Protein: NAD(P)H-quinone oxidoreductase subunit I, chloroplastic
Amino acid sequence: MLPMVTGFRNYGQQTIRAVRYIGQSFMITLSHANRLPVTIQYPYEKLITSERFRGRIHFEFDKCIACEVCVRVCPIDLPVVDWQFETNIRKKRLLNYSIDFGICIFCGNCVEYCPTNCLSMTEEYELSTYDRHELNYNQIALGRLPISVIDDYTIRTISTLPQLKRSKPLIKDKD
Structure:
């Protein structure tokens, strides 16, 4: 008789534990049902990138002094800088500047260490192509500024920061 009572007792405990687990999972499901959807319709909706986002590099040809600091600090020696030394003015003249974004790791060292600030990171992240040779940008392609996601009227922008709802004002007005 004793083994039968302990069997019923174990069965009851297991049943209560199973009901508790089902209740917990049901509460989690209900809490997710009240949330807003996370999915965006990509070509028509785009997320606004943060201001520290490291996208495609923008290059200003007129500011560059061909010092090659960007090549020296790059972990993969990526930027190709062609220059010619002008003997009459005793300065370097930049002939060509190119970056292959198929190899670039977007570390931002070239932008950070550039003494003339001729390099900057943009918010452009759509660099996919069918041919990998199209990712080799010369100074003309690097000089083009991308259209800002915020300024593009054909795309609905979605902020990445959650909207905080405050029930009480932070500072109360004294009348």
In short: The radius of gyration is 29 Å. The mean pLDDT is 84.
